[in-house]
């Protein structure tokens, strides 16, 4: 047996939430993120994913044609994830990304103003309503953005980029805090 | 440059999100002779005007797109997902 024991630490655990009356930036719990990839030709996947994932605890976020993230606040037990993956087959395959990607929340009246400094995505509620997701660049880092409330966004980013993105977002938020 | 690209999956996005993958050409049949493959791999027309290129939406939907762009005005006439419709390789 190897002596080496990996310890999982929340990557943004040491970051201080940026908080003011008009903007709040906070790390979200490292719960569950499952990347779902549909087989070519599969249609009407969203209701299917909703029923398979029991969407009370998990939310289905579109990524690109035929791809979704299922996210949850709590880590999913291995057995539960195995049966979820089995239920997806043969229409789709699931990949556990819970340790590969990190979620960040940015909310408040100035959240979209701060985000717009880094992305060309049109964040106006008419073009990007609640529930809409998109993959885009924030500065030089690719990230998945979802509007989760009228003034709240969830950002999913690869774990290795999470600290850099956090520092960028904190700097972008400075004038509002 | 064609600085805003109308991705059929994501909407208008800045060119920085994309990787240009070169001319969208008809691929020769597998058994075609060497000179045909040489043309396909190395020879380009470099036209003054309309041009079909593969663009990859690297920092977006990560789909391969076929973009019709004017090399003089940089206007984008059309942009489609490379998987849509008849595949380019099968067109004559
Ligand atoms: Zn796209």
Describe this structure in words.
The complex is a heterodimer of chains A (177) and B (92). Chain A has 177 residues and is α+β, with helices and mostly antiparallel strands. Chain A has two domains: 18-29 and 100-176, Gyrase A, domain 2 (2-Layer Sandwich), CATH 3.30.1360; 32-96, Alpha-Beta Plaits. In chain A, 23% of the residues lie in helices and 34% in strands. Chain A contains four helices and ten strands. Chain A has a six-stranded antiparallel beta sheet. A four-stranded antiparallel beta sheet of chain A has the order 4-5-3-6, covered by helices on one side. In chain A, a hairpin with a 2-residue loop joins strand 4 and strand 5. Chain A starts with 17 loop residues before the first strand and ends with a helix. Chain B is mainly beta and 92 residues long. Chain B has a single domain (4-81), classed as 2-Layer Sandwich (Folate-binding fold), CATH 3.30.2270. In chain B, 10% of the residues lie in helices and 36% in strands. Chain B has one helix spanning 34-42, and strands at residues 4-7, 11-14, 19-23, 50-56, 64-70, 76-81. In chain B, the strands form two sheets. Chain B has a four-stranded antiparallel beta sheet, with no helix packed on it. In chain B, strands 1-2 form a two-stranded antiparallel ribbon. In chain B, a hairpin with a 7-residue loop joins strand 4 and strand 5. The longest helix of chain B is centred in the middle third of the chain and has 9 residues, at 34-42. Chain B starts with a strand and ends in an 11-residue tail after the last strand. Residues 87-92 of chain B have low confidence and may be disordered. The interface between A and B is medium-sized, with 12 and 15 residues. Bound molecules: zinc ion.
